[in-house]
Amino acid sequence: MKKLVIVSGLSGAGKSQVINILEDNEYFCVDNLPVKLFDKFVQLVKTTQKNKFAISMDVRSVEHIQELVKVYIETLDKLKDIKLIKLFLEADEKVLINRFSETRRKHPLGGELTSAIRKEQKLLSEIKKRSDFIIDTSKLTIAELKQKVINIVEQKYQGKLRINIMSFSYKLGLPLNADIVFDTRFLPNPNYVENLKMLTGKNTKVKSYVLNSKDTLQFLSYIKQMLIFLIPKILKEGKNYFTLCFGCTGGKHRSVVIAEEIYKYLNKLKKDF
């Protein structure tokens, strides 16, 4: 099946760089395609012998953005026999301001820069919502951006998310690679139970003690619900790894119990993360 990558996003976020990356990887690319020519380009995709295409569309005015939104709403979902991958690029406001300052370029929407950036964010919100992958380029090097884009469009991650679950001690500080941290220090503490304090959260007696609490069960329920919501969003960002951390005072009782329970829960899920 033929593949069409549509690159959209905020001005200054790196759309042209992504088009260049895809061109270097044997995609037939068009940068700043006028929105009115989109239907003709689709016909080209269908009739040419090439299989991989990528475009970014010209959104240098409010009218162009409105036309692009209309394409996303009315046209893209109706395309058949073409695999669509919709990328949306964004960056922090301060980063965008610095990039425009460094290149001395004016924002396509004109006027005061910060106002133009915020106006564009609002105008493109519907396109962002309808995109398959959102890439924040604020802290990415060109090499990192290239790797992320290629992983997405060539599906090297295969839609799977590797979740790394770990427990830690607050005495030793937060793990540097943590994406999300949960504090379990409000749960019942086995350290104050004489026959449990020398054991770990892997021990059945410690598990029973910690889990025999309404707070613990409710806490686990909230985490599970949050993960069901978050995991598809994380995949949409193009990430294929994620580190989930649970902390307690010593890092060997409560945090271990919760980490083990979440590990078992994710393993039982039918979804292929």
User: Largest sheet, described in full?
Assistant: 5 strands, parallel
Instruction: Tell me the CATH architecture of the largest domain.
Output: 3-Layer(aba) Sandwich
Strand order of the largest sheet: 2-3-1-4-5
Number of domains: 2
What would the principal axes of the Cα set say about the shape?
A: elongated
CATH class of the largest domain: Alpha Beta
Tally of separate helices: 10
CATH homology-level superfamily of the largest domain: P-loop containing nucleotide triphosphate hydrolases
Structure, explained:
The protein contains 10 helices and 8 strands. It has 273 residues and is an alpha/beta fold. The chain folds into 2 domains: 152 residues, P-loop containing nucleotide triphosphate hydrolases (Rossmann fold), CATH 3.40.50.300; 107 residues, no CATH class. Helix 4 crosses helix 5 and helix 9 crosses helix 10. It has a 5-stranded parallel sheet with strand order 2-3-1-4-5, sandwiched between helices. Strands 6-8-7 form a 3-stranded parallel sheet, covered by helices on one side. The model has no long low-confidence stretch (mean pLDDT 88).
Features of the shown structure:
43% helix; five-stranded parallel β-sheet; 19% strand; alpha/beta; three-stranded parallel β-sheet; Rossmann fold; elongated; 273 residues; single chain
Summarize the structure.
The protein is an alpha/beta fold.
Topology:
Elements lengths: L1 E8 L5 H10 L3 E6 L4 H10 L4 E6 L4 H13 L7 E9 L2 H11 L9 H11 L1 H5 L3 E4 L5 H12 L8 E8 L10 E4 L20 H8 L2 H23 L4 E8 L5 H15 L5
Parallel strand pairs: 1-3, 1-4, 2-3, 4-5, 6-8, 7-8
Helix pairs in contact: 1-7, 4-5, 9-10
